[in-house]
Write a structure and sequence with these properties.
Order of helices and strands: HH
Helix content: over 70%
Strand content: under 5%
Shape: rod-shaped
Distance between the termini: 91 Å
Number of strands: 0
Structural class: mainly alpha
Largest sheet: none
């Protein structure tokens, strides 16, 4: 390292390597950010689908109870009472 020119060349090589690594990591970060965004969208879609399926399941349980099944009758009565209260509130809002 006694030769300043040799030290400059070594520094240039290290700087080129560093810049190359920076560019690679920058591109990799972009790819990962895009993948993350896609996965976030997919997660939201799956959460919405799950929510819909849960609502369908609730409705199916209510339909089965109304159909004559003795299972979950308490839940069905509570749900019907809740729906009646909501309808009463809507009527009250319409009348005022």
């Amino acid at each position: 390292m006694s030769d300043p020119l040799e030290a400059i060349h070594l520094l240039e090589d290290k700087l080129k390597t560093l810049l190359s690594n920076y560019d690679f990591l920058k591109e990799e970060n972009q790819v990962l950010l895009q993948n993350n965004a896609k996965l976030q969208v997919l997660l939201q879609e799956k959460e919405q689908e799950l929510s819909k399926k849960q609502e369908e399941f609730k409705l199916l349980k209510i339909a089965k109870t109304i159909e004559g099944s003795s299972e979950n009758t308490r839940e069905t009565k509570l749900k019907i009472n809740t729906l009646v209260r909501e309808i009463d509130k809507c009527i009250a809002l319409l009348n005022s």
